[in-house]
Amino acid sequence: MTSPDQEVGAAAFRPAAGWASGVGSMPGTDPREAAAVVAGELADLPHLPELPARGPGADMVGRAAGLLVDLHVDVQPSGWRLVHRPGMDERRARAFLSADLDAIEEACQGMVGPVKLQVCGPWTMAASMRLFSGEPVLSDAGAVRDLAASLTEGLVAHVADLRRRLPGAQPLLQLDEPSLPAVLAGGVRTTSGVRSLEPVPSTTAEEFLRSVVRAVGLVGAPVVVHCCAARPPVSLLQRCGVAGLSLDLTVLPRDLDDELGAAVEAGLALLAGVVPAVPVPGGTLSAPADTVGPVRRLWHRLGLDPAALRLVVVTPTCGMAGADPGHAVAALRLARAAARQLADDQEGER
To answer: I need a labelling partner for 88 at 20 to 30 A (CA). Which of 56, 160, 293, 335 fits?
Structure first.
């Protein structure tokens, strides 16, 4: 069932039972090695790895900054900043992304099916990037609008680039919005730290996200939003017409159960973060059946139809840039095994 909140232009994402994927970032600095791991371990839904260990330009904000159209950036001690002319930092960000795309093209050559791209969303970018004055872009409503429009144009081109490289691929775009709850709550501070910026009205946040979802949906790419904060704005995101939500189920408070249940019943996919993104104390990961416990408990609390488990894609809780390579491989293998366990559970309920 399609959500009534999804507009024309919003594209649907329908995972099959037993799918697993990653959130985005991986340890290391070799894009070909990371792409080979992802393609090998996540054959149903591979993703374009991000490798922040390479430095500025390979980080979440830098990668998105490299996609901006007719806006330019550089790196300052305070982070990424909008500037008047292109420079070395911007060229480096574009070069990193090009190398990553080359690697996933090689690893997934001939693939037919979904491939996930991850890009920092407009509100987290506005909270993280600086104006030339040094203040957050979020402090200037006009600059936020320009940034969102530029990013949207870049995202459409990014989707087209993946399709050109992998003609059989079905692009799935993940917008990373870890700062969205802080933006809505007035939790983003000025550069001096003396005060916080005014909260962004939920209607404004929804308008901008809906615009991105619509534009990317019109070129056939569904959009999911990843928010690893403890209180993601589930209902707001559903109203934006997204095709799915990527959340850390291990920290999600129970008072969001009803919102999440409504999203699942409306047909949104749930990219369920249940596999530890970094090594756990003692170093031993749980068994697949225990790993998907949070999903099972959520379904039990809400009385959801077991058939809706097909909408669940098992993932790590967040990106794995802070993990060691051994843990990253083990986590992706566990995600795949746990997804199969969930599929078996669904079959057993029939």
So the answer is: 160
Query: CA 165, CA 210: separation in Å to the nearest integer?
Result: 27
Burial pattern 149-167, b for ≥16 Cβ within 10 A else e, equals bbbbbbbbebbebbbebbe
Name beta bridge partners: 1: none
Question: Mapping DSSP to helix (H, G, I), strand (E, B) and coil, where does residue 192 land?
Answer: coil
- pTM, two decimals, is 0.94
pLDDT digits (tens, 9 = 90+) for 108-160: 999 999 999 999 999 999 999 999 999 999 999 999 999 999 999 999 999 99
Cβ neighbors of 201 (< 8 A, separation 6 or more) are none
pLDDT (0 to 100) of residue 5: 46
d(CA 36, CA 103): 8
Tens of pLDDT, residues 185-206: 999 999 888 899 999 999 999 9
- Asked if 112 and 171 touch (Cβ cutoff 8 Å), the reply is no
Helix axes 202-217, 141-165, angle to 10 degrees: 20
Taking Cα atoms as reference points, which of 270, 248, 251 lies closest to residue 261? 270
Nearest by Cα to 306 from 278, 343, 272: 343
pLDDT tens digits, one per residue of 18-59: 999 999 999 999 999 999 999 999 999 999 999 999 999 999
Question: How many angstroms separate the CA atoms of 324 and 320, rounded?
Answer: 8
User: What is the distance between the alpha carbons of residues 248 and 225, in angstroms, rounded to a whole number?
Assistant: 12
For the chain, give the number of residues: 350
Report the C-alpha gap between 215 and 314 in whole angstroms.
Answer: 27
For 191, other C-beta atoms within 10 Å of its C-beta total: 14
In sequence order, which residues have a C-beta less than 8 Å from that of residue 290 and are 6 or more positions away?
Answer: none
pLDDT of residue 3: 45
DSSP string, 12-67: P--PPTT-B---SB-SSS-HHHHHHHHHHH-SSS-B--B-GGG-TTSSHHHHHHTT
CA pair distance 252, 254, nearest whole angstrom: 7
Q: One-letter amino acid identity for 347?
A: E
Return the DSSP state at 256: G
